Amino acid sequence: MFNFSVEKQTESSEFDQVTLWDLLIIGGGPAGLNAALYAKRKGLKVGVIADEIGGQLHNTTTVDNYLGFKMIQGEELSNTFLEHVQALEVPILKSVRVLEVIHLNPDYQLKISSGKMVTSKTVLLATGGAPRKLNIPGEDTYANKGVTYCATCDAPFFKDKHVIVAGGGNSAVEGVLDLLAWAKKITIAHRSQFRADQILLNQIKELDQLDINLETQILSIIGGEEMTGIQVLDKKTNEKRIIQADGLLIEIGTEPNANLIKDLVKTNMRNEIIVDQNQMTSLPGLYAAGDVTEQPFKQIVISVAEGAKAALAVNQYLQQNYKGEN
Amino acid sequence: MEKLLNEDVSKQIKQALQPMQNNIKMVLFTKEGGCNTCEETKQLLTEVEPLNDKISVEFKDIDMDKDLAESFDVIDVPTFVVLNDKDEYRGVKFQGIPAGHEINSFLSALVFMSGLDLGLDPKIIERISKIDKPVDIKVFVTLSCPHCPGAVSTAHSLAMLNDHIQASMVESQTFFELSKKYNVSGVPKIIINEDHELLGNQPIDAFLSEIEKL
Fold it and tell me: Do A4 and B100 touch (CB under 8 A)?
């Protein structure tokens, strides 16, 4: 529980001094931090811009599928990554957002929320994903009035209450485990079958306070001032019914945080960035890695690996294909 | 009573506090007869004090030291404020125990109140300095929320840089009635001057944009 990262809000000085970066990484999650590590080791002039270090690792209580760590807290793993990158003195501009990516061909200019503009020969977008919404009636009305997307943050508000968990993947099952200490009853409502790892499913199969509704589609969230339940469609019987509950944790995957460059590069139907085998987008010098890309398995270890691949490919691009002045 | 901080954690805190520049003082208000988490908060501050010689702690009673409590706008317990080396209140307050993930915002407040440069962009500092209306920021947190310390530290940074701003971490479970008053059921929830709100850990420019609307 005690993980320390007492740091400056931003470290602007290096960002004021460098006029042309080799690589600027947008995002401070596993993909971005590992790309920073690999790029720095190659000798590149690399910087990271991140509104929050750790990314989605902060939404996970424990990680138990990252090789080398049988069980580690998400935040602790994030701090371990950060310490490694900081040991190499990679400048990190924190608590700011990149508002715009401008292609100057061959370079890129980034407009930052503090008002600063920075220029780089290459850019890596490693902005990850945000919780996917159900997009059903009542979801916005009851956001933070029962509806939540962060079990670790909001579980205490469900003390002795009945909470529905939407989803059937690893995050949903982990959400159930996070709620166990607080909620008196938990109901899983998922439109198809479980996709979660068997090792996680084994942990919930004999829980007294858990009710599992598979093949159950959530149609709407109902209530007055606060939510009081959900309306569902039982896909086996084709019947609609109401499940009364105090809260709804939505864990149905992520939406890519791709807005910054989605109009500059090719994306798929889900707005995920399409990249080649070297993590390069359809624009030379612009790379993407981690959950923002179209790769289907959103896993920490895959994001970390993609970050490394992107950094190595950037190094090669700068040596062989960069059209500007070196 | 069993120690809150074991040897390993104390060592880590000591290291985190090493960049401290000048003296700071924490003034904790509790109540005779006790209150929910008053003892734990007192114990946490007592255990942190010896980890850096620039830290001192004073314990007060909200009823017996009423005038002092009022001077810091302390209305409930446990609440503590962090004063700078001139014993000045710069608007940095904690309502409830900053344990769990909030240990990070707690240590940040001590280190930066001691005078360590916040490292903010000059353009952001300029925007902060232009705020000339009273601003009260409450950041509601739970101790299990990893996104919350960032929001608390941002609010505290604003307070440290402008005398018109005061910022408080509010631990939602201890301050249950206050949480209910502001309809808090998801955190971090940021309330600015009673009726402006932000959800989630927001970057400092988002705080400023909201404050500039006041």
Answer: no
User: What does the pLDDT look like over B117-133, one tens digit per residue?
Assistant: 887 888 889 999 999 99
The boundaries of the domain holding residue B53 are 7-212
Q: Does residue B2 form part of some domain?
A: no
Radius of gyration of chain A (CA): 21
Give the CATH number, domain containing residue B111. Answer: 3.40.30.80
CA-based nearest distance B97→chain A, Å: 14
Residues of A in contact with B173 (CB under 8 A): 156
End-to-end CA distance of chain B: 47
CA A115 to chain centre: 25
- pLDDT averaged over consecutive 10-residue blocks of chain B (214 residues)? 87 92 98 89 96 98 96 96 97 96 94 90 90 97 90 96 97 94 92 92 89 94
- pLDDT tens digits for B37-49? 999 999 999 999 9
On whether the CB atoms of residues B110 and B17 are closer than 8 A, the answer is yes
Report chain A's mean pLDDT, rounded to a whole number. Answer: 93
For the four alpha carbons of A170, A175, A181 and A184, in that order, the dihedral sign comes to negative
- Whether the pTM exceeds 0.95: the reply is no
Considering only the top CATH level, what class is A12-130+255-320?
alpha beta
Cβ of A11 under 8 Å from any chain B Cβ? yes
Whose CA is closest to A35, among A152, A150, A126? A126
- Whether A12 shows a pLDDT value over 90: the answer reads no
Please give the pLDDT value at position A35.
98
B173 contacts A156? CB cut-off 8 A: yes
Q: For B144, which of A9, A95, A152 is closest by C-beta distance?
A: A152
- Taking CA atoms, A207 is separated from A156, A162, A193, B135, in Å, by 19, 14, 18, 48
Amino acid identity of residue B75, one-letter, is: I
Of B104, B119, B148, nearest to A11 by CB-CB distance is: B119
CATH, range A147-250:
3.50.50.60
